[in-house]
Design goal:
Elements lengths: L1 E10 L2 H17 L3 E5 L14 E7 L2 H8 L2 H13 E10 L1
Antiparallel strand pairs: 1-3, 1-4, 2-3
Helix pairs in contact: 1-3
């Protein structure tokens, strides 16, 4: 089953976050992932969830998604993300 990484992001340093995005994409691709959603407009349909930015990544499976998150190539970009944004991240199995 595919593995989807879903991230809710509040960018706190837009310039730094742009630099992060430049580095992160190559690591996602290296681990066979692809962006399904990358910050498009979001509209709340139910509840009070008001995310600033949503990113959804698709990987071959959940294990591969976790390998990407913890890989050496993503170590520094991940630190950049933590410095430039507040994030919540989950991984979920999908179709």
């Amino acid at each position: 089953m595919a593995g989807y990484v879903i991230v809710e992001i509040e960018v706190t340093d837009p310039v730094g976050y742009e630099e992060y995005k430049k580095l992160a994409g190559a690591t996602v691709a290296k681990y066979g992932g692809k962006y399904i959603v990358r910050g498009g407009a979001a509209e709340t349909l139910e509840g009070d969830w008001q995310p600033k930015r949503i990113v959804i990544l698709q990987f071959e499976n959940v294990q591969r998604a976790k390998e990407w998150l913890h890989c050496p190539e993503y170590r520094e970009p991940r630190k950049m993300r933590h410095r430039t944004a507040k994030t919540k991240m989950i991984v979920v199995e999908g179709l």
